[in-house]
Every structure is written in structure tokens, then in C-alpha cells.
Amino acid sequence: MDRQGNTYTFLYASVMVIVVAAILAFLAQSLKPMQDKNAAVAKKMDILKSVQIESTAADAEEKYNKYIGENAYVLDINGEKKAGLEAFTVDLAKEVKKGDDERAYPIYECKLDNGQTKYIIPVRGKGLWGPIWGYVSLDDDKNTVFGATFGHKGETPGLGAEITTDMFQKPFTGKKLFDENGQFASIEVVKKGQSQGDLHKVDGISGGTITSVGVGTMLEDCLSGYEKFLKN
Amino acid sequence: MSSEKEPLFSAKNLKLITTPLGAQNPITIQVLGICSALAVTVKLEPAIVLSISVMFVTVFSNLIISLLRNTIPARIRIIVQLVVVASLVIIVDQVLKAFAYEVSLQLSVFVGLIITNCIIMGRLEAFALGNKPWPSVLDGIGNGAGYGFILIVVAFFRELLGTGFLTLPGLGAIQIIPDVFYQWGYANNGFMILPPMALVVVGIIIWVQRSRNKDLIES
Fold this sequence. Notes:
The structure holds two protein chains of two kinds.
Chain A: H1 6-50, H2 60-67, E1 72-75, H3 92-95, E2 105-111, E3 117-126, E4 131-138, E5 145-152, H4 166-169, E6 188-190, E7 201-203, H5 209-223, H6 227-231
Parallel strand pairs in A: 6-7
Antiparallel strand pairs in A: 1-2, 2-3, 3-4, 4-5
Chain B: H1 11-18, H2 34-39, H3 44-68, H4 77-99, H5 101-107, H6 109-113, H7 118-126, H8 133-163, E1 165-168, E2 172-175, H9 179-183, H10 195-212
Antiparallel strand pairs in B: 1-2
């Protein structure tokens, strides 16, 4: 057959596309269970990290069952439990797009070894390039932050991506969500060095301003929905 | 049948690996693949993992295109190359997500960016379409390594001078510049972690290389 003719070219392109599509579809399908499992384990590690429990991919499952297990539930805006939803499988990416009243608000209760109860709230928002997310844990006064951990899809390494480091996350510990009058004040991320002594501010990252501000907006947006629950 | 078979690692074949490391380096001489060299050289670890991933793609895309070279219709050869490269990159991405989840999180968008790396298509056009599979594989190794080498050198200086740390795969961030230096008044150069400095560092490497190798200077 004429290698440069139209028929050959069309045939070649069609066969190539079908073969490649078949290979990739097969690969994606066969690797999917492993990828989903990895994602679930990574999520459990993140949740545990927000209460300062270090885990590895190997023991995350076990530790999650030990400290949290079934103590996870979904709330509505009024702080009442919503039946029929599982906290771990709630897709926050979809929830944050809904109106405040319709959203599902998942929460995890964690019993530490010393008997203390911590509340873990998942948060999700926008950074500079894509989504950012995290977990904020609160002491049993439902006001003081015990720990926070953040993740991102594609923030700039060395700048916005620094929100995943201890340097950024550690200062959240001890901050408060409500002011002295019991009003919801959230936690703002401000320019480096301007947060000293303020219970509602933490230092941002120089050069990563949009991501830093994104974290602040995310906390305000996601945590405000828990106000009724936290005040009880 | 040809009377004599060329040995697998003949001098000519070895040259395919060594020239892209130096005199025909894809980044410093051919100035290809600059975009990712600017983007992923803030830290050493992603630079290393990306270098390995790019090498995988250059080797296998060169091999596949070389095997198919006599069947590819000339008019759609660029499309065929693109399909092969894109498929390989998706395979890398999927496999990393299944078996090296942590690494895939760190690389995030950069794996997808391999598709746009001009070195890969450049080598397919310039070499794999006209050569046998084995030399094409060596050419892929050479160019992947030449790219990775520059990436790692640039990342080394940027991370060291910009943050005082070096991050290595499996070891995490290691502090290189001792605290005493900071007490004496040494300060990290924050400019190093911004993209323009990657360009400047690559420029310095090109300058050093050209001043040492007079053949590279245009008359």
C-alpha cells in the first residue's frame, strides 16, 4: 500500500488511536484500586497528623481505627447530625460549592492516649494554581486550635507549597476561633511578622501571598459553618 | 546479511550517551527543555525525580518511534510522536500514583509537563525517525541524562543558596549551611528561589561551558 496515501494515513491514525486508548484504559482501570487505596491512606495520615499523631503508609489504617474509628459523623448548618452520610467519604470539593445551608459538614472525634478528645474539621479552598485543603483539630473547649495540617494540588514549590511545612503549620496551635465575646473570628493569615501576640492571626509566607491568603479564606469559609456545633 | 555486526557499546554508540552530557547538551547548547528547568529547580528532590521520569520517557519514546519509523506516514509523524509521548507520560503518572504515591504528590503538575518538554520531540524528529532501535535507546539515555544533569546542578545551587537546605529523595531536607553562619550575618538569598534566577544560573553554566570549550563559540 502507498505509505504516503490518504487511505494508509487514515488507517494508521485510527489503529494507533484505538490501540493507545485500549492500553491506557486497561492500565488506568487495573491501577485504580491501588490509587484509591493510596489516596484513602494519605487522607487518614493527614487527619492523624492534625492531632499530632505521626503515621506511615503502613500503620495509618490501624492508627486511624484506634483513635477515630467510628467516631466520625456529618453535621448540618445547625450542628445537628445528618443521617445517612459517612464523614470519610464526603467529597468536600463538591460540598464547598453548595450554599451554606445545604452543605454537609463532616467532623472527626479523636480520643487521644491521654483521654483527651479532639475535634478534627476538614477544610478546602483555593490557592494560587488550584485547590488547597487541610485538617484543623480543636481542643475539647471547641475553640482552641490543637493542630493544623495543609495540602495542595499544585502550588509553587518553595513559595506557596510551603503551607505543607511545620514552619507554617506549627503557629496555628493555641490560636482561637472565637473572640472574648464568643463571636466567630476565624484565623487570618497575615504578612510575616505581623501576627505576634494575636490569637486570631498567623504568619503567612513571603512570596506565597495568594496561597497564604487562600488558607485564611478557606478557614473562614469552612469553619464558620460549624459555629452552632462548636458553641454547644 | 551484513558481514560484521557492530558491538552494542562501540565507540560510536557510546558517543551517543556522552555528547549530550557535554558538547551537545540539550539545555545548555541546544537550549531545549528550558521551561521545566526553570520550574522544578527550586528543590533538589523534585529535580531528581523529574530527571528520572524524563529519562524514562526519552528512552521509551525513542525506542517506540524507532521501531515504527518505517511505517509512520510522513504527514502525520508529529501527531504520532505526540501520541506516543503523551501515552508514556500518562503511564508514568499512573504508575507513580499507584506505587509511589508520596513522590507523585510532590511532582504534582510537573509529570504532565513532561509532554511539553521540547527535548523529547526534538530527539524523536532528529534521531529516532532515522536510526535503528538500539542507537535510539542510547540517544534517549544520553539526552535524558544531559537534561537531568543540568537540572540537578541548577537545583543544587538554587536550593542551597536560597534556603540553606538540600532535599534528597528518601532523606528529606538536610541543613547544609550551619546556624553559626547565620549568626555571623550570612543571609539566604531569597531571590534564588524565584524563577528568574534559574535562567541566570543556566546562563552562568552556559558561559562557563563555552569559555572552556572554544569549539562552541560562534565566529
